[in-house]
Design a protein that fits this description.
Blueprint (H helix, E strand, L loop, with lengths): L1 E6 L3 H16 L3 E2 L8 E7 L3 H17 L6 E7 L2 H7 L5 E2 L8 H6 L11 E3 L16 H7 L11 E3 L3 H8 L10 E5 L1 E2 L10 H5 L3 E2 L2 H13 L4 E5 L17 H15 L4 E5 L8 H9 L6 E3 L7 H6 L6 H14 L4 E8 L6 H14 L3 E6 L17 H24 L5 E9 L5 E6 L4 E5 L9 E10 L2 E6 H9 L1
Parallel strand pairs: 1-2, 1-3, 3-4, 4-5, 8-11, 11-12, 13-14, 14-15, 18-20
Antiparallel strand pairs: 6-7, 9-10, 16-17, 16-19, 17-18, 19-20
C-alpha cells in the first residue's frame, strides 16, 4: 500500500506534513512520488490564499476521476476555513483537522466516515477595539468610517474548537523529517491577533503554546543527529507563553535556553524563528539573539503596511513609530542581522498617499527581502465583508513599484559583500549547471561552482565574487585550498 501527500501553504503546513507522514507510515503505507501509484492520496490545504484552495479543487477533481479505474482513498486536512471545509466534505473521503491526525487510523478503518468538525467555542469577529494602552490614538471603527468602509450591523460570531489536549496529542507525534539537515519545530498553534485581512485565527484557533520541555527535547535531539538549520514555528512566536502566564517561560527565555544549550553542546547549528509580531517584539528577544552564537542573525518582522491608518484598518495593533524603534534597536544591537518583512498592497481603502508611505518605509528600512502580496479577501476574515475597492491593475502597479524598490536595496546590500568571506550552509544543487546552492546565516542565497553532492547539508566558507538581484556568487575556499596544495 502506497501514499502520496501534497503540501500547500506555509512552513507550518510543511512541519505538519512531517507528522502526517509519520502517522500514515505507522499504518503500513509507503511513500511514493507518483500520484498514479498511490492507494492513499492526501492534501494539507491552506485557506489563507485562494491560489492554494484552487490547487486543492484541481487535484481532487483529477483524483476522483481516477476512482473509476482503481480503489483510492482521499483525504484533506491542514489550515482550512469552515466554508472550505464544508465544500471539501462533498469531495474527499476523509476531512479532518490536524489535531485529529492521531485518529487517522481509525478513520481509515471506517472508510467513508468523516470525523465531525467541532465548531463550539465562541470566537470574536476581529472588530474588537484596540488593546488598552496601545501606542496609537486612533481606533479601528474611526478609521473604517473615515475610509468609508462599512461595518456590518450584525457581524455575528464565528465559533471554533479550542481543545488544548487535542493539539498536544498531535505535537507528541514524532515527525518524519524530510531533510537530513533542515528541520522545523512547532512551538505554538493558533493566533489571538485577529488581523482583519487574515483567516489564520479561523483555521487554527486561539494561541496554544507547546510545553518548552518538549521543544527543547526535540531541538537537542535534532542537534545531536547533526541538523544544521532549525526553525521555530508559530503564527506569532514572540507571544509564546502568553496563554500560560506563570506556567510557561516567555519567548526570550526559551531562546536563551536554546542559546545556552548551543554554547555547551560544542556543535554548530543555526536557529531561526517565524513569524514574530511587532506588537510583541521586545528588546529582550533581540538582546538574546545578539548574545548567543547559535541564534541566527536574521529576523523576519512583518510590517504589512507603511501607513498608520491602514495598519489600524488591518487591526495590527502597532504603528510605524513602534516598528521603527524595533528596527533601530536591531541595527544597533545586531549590526550584521538581515531583515525580512511581509507587505500587502491594495488593501481595502488604501489611497495613493497611504501606498506612498509604504514605499517610503521600504526606502527607509532597506529590507533584505520582502514578501509582497496583492490583497485578496478570504472568507471568514473580517475584511472579506468589505468592498474590495482597489482595482486589480492598481494592485499590480503597486506590487511592481515595491518590487523595484526591494531590488534596488537588495542589490546595494549584496554588492557590498563582494570580496568578503562568509560561512554558508549548502542546501542543494543550483539551477545553474555545475553549481551548488547555499544560504548564509542571514538567509542570502549564494551559489558556487561544484558538483560535490557530499557538501549538501554541510557548512563551508565562500568568498563572494559577484552579486545579482537576490543572489550572490562566489568560490568555495576549501576547494581553492585543495587545488593550491596540489
Amino acid at each position: 500500500m502506497k501514499y502520496h501527500l501534497v503540501t500547500l501553504g506555509c512552513q507550518m503546513n510543511k512541519s505538519d506534513s512531517e507528522r502526517t507522514m509519520t502517522v500514515i507510515e505507522r499504518l503500513g503505507y509507503r511513500w511514493t512520488a507518483s500520484e498514479d501509484e498511490a492507494d492513499l492520496l492526501g492534501i494539507l490545504a491552506c485557506s489563507v490564499r485562494q491560489k492554494s484552495i484552487d490547487k486543492v479543487y484541481s487535484r481532487i477533481s483529477k483524483w476522483n476521476k481516477s476512482k473509476k479505474d482503481r480503489n483510492l482513498l482521499t483525504f484533506v486536512s491542514g489550515c482550512i476555513l469552515p466554508a472550505d471545509r464544508g465544500k471539501f466534505l462533498k469531495l474527499f473521503d476523509l476531512v479532518f483537522t490536524m489535531d485529529e491526525l492521531p485518529d487517522l487510523g481509525s478513520m481509515i478503518r471506517q472508510y467513508g466516515v468523516v470525523t465531525p468538525v467541532s465548531l463550539q467555542s465562541q470566537y470574536p469577529t476581529g472588530l474588537a477595539s484596540l488593546d488598552e494602552g496601545q501606542d496609537t490614538p486612533l481606533d479601528l471603527v474611526t478609521v473604517l468610517k473615515d475610509n468609508k468602509i462599512d461595518i456590518p450591523s450584525d457581524p455575528g460570531l464565528l465559533t471554533l474548537k479550542k481543545d488544548p489536549s487535542e493539539i498536544k496529542k498531535f505535537w507528541k507525534v514524532d515527525p518524519h523529517y524530510t531533510s537530513d539537515f533542515e528541520a522545523f519545530i512547532p512551538i505554538q498553534n493558533g493566533c489571538d491577533k485577529f488581523c482583519t485581512f487574515c483567516a489564520v485565527p479561523y483555521t487554527r484557533g486561539r494561541e496554544i503554546s507547546r510545553p518548552s520541555s518538549e521543544i527543547l527535547d526535540e531541538l537537542r535531539d535534532l542537534v545531536e543527529r547533526g541538523y544544521r538549520s532549525i526553525t521555530l514555528l508559530g503564527q506569532n512566536v514572540n507571544s509564546y507563553g502568553h496563554d500560560k502566564q506563570g506556567d510557561e517561560i516567555p519567548f526570550h527565555e526559551l531562546l536563551a535556553k536554546i542559546g545556552e544549550y548551543g554554547d555547551s553542546s560544542g556543535k554548530d547549528f543555526w536557529v531561526y524563528f517565524t513569524s514574530p509580531h511587532p506588537r510583541d517584539m521586545s528588546n529582550e528577544v533581540i538582546d538574546v539573539i545578539a548574545r548567543y552564537k547559535c541564534l541566527a542573525k536574521q529576523i523576519h518582522l512583518p510590517v504589512q503596511s507603511g501607513d498608520d491608518k491602514v495598519l489600524i484598518t488591518m487591526n495590527r495593533n502597532h504603528n510605524i513609530d513602534r516598528y521603527r524603534n524595533i528596527v533601530q534597536y536591531i541595527r544597533r544591537t545586531i549590526p550584521t542581522a538581515t531583515l525580512f518583512t511581509d507587505i500587502i498592497v491594495g488593501f481595502t481603502g488604501e489611497t495613493d498617499e497611504q501606498f506612498e508611505n509604504t514605499r517610503l518605509l521600504m526606502e527607509e528600512f532597506r529590507f533584505n527581502m520582502a514578501y509582497i502580496a496583492m490583497y485578496s479577501p478570504r472568507p471568514g476574515a473580517t475584511s472579506s465583508r468589505w468592498e474590495d475597492n482597489i482595482p486589480q491593475e492598481t494592485k499590480k502597479q503597486r506590487l511592481q513599484v515595491l518590487t523595484d524598490e526591494l531590488i534596488k536595496h537588495n542589490r546595494d546590500y549584496n554588492r557590498a559583500l563582494i570580496g568578503k568571506k562568509t560561512q554558508v550552509l549548502v542546501v542543494g544543487q543550483d539551477r545553474k549547471k555545475g553549481y551548488l546552492k547555499a544560504l548564509t546565516e542571514g538567509k542570502l542565497i549564494v551559489r558556487f561552482p561544484s558538483t560535490d553532492k557530499s557538501l549538501i547539508g554541510q557548512y563551508t566558507e565562500v568568498k563572494i565574487n559577484s552579486a545579482a538581484d537576490f543572489s550572490l556568487e562566489g568560490e568555495n575556499l576549501a576547494i581553492i585550498e585543495q587545488l593550491n596544495e596540489q
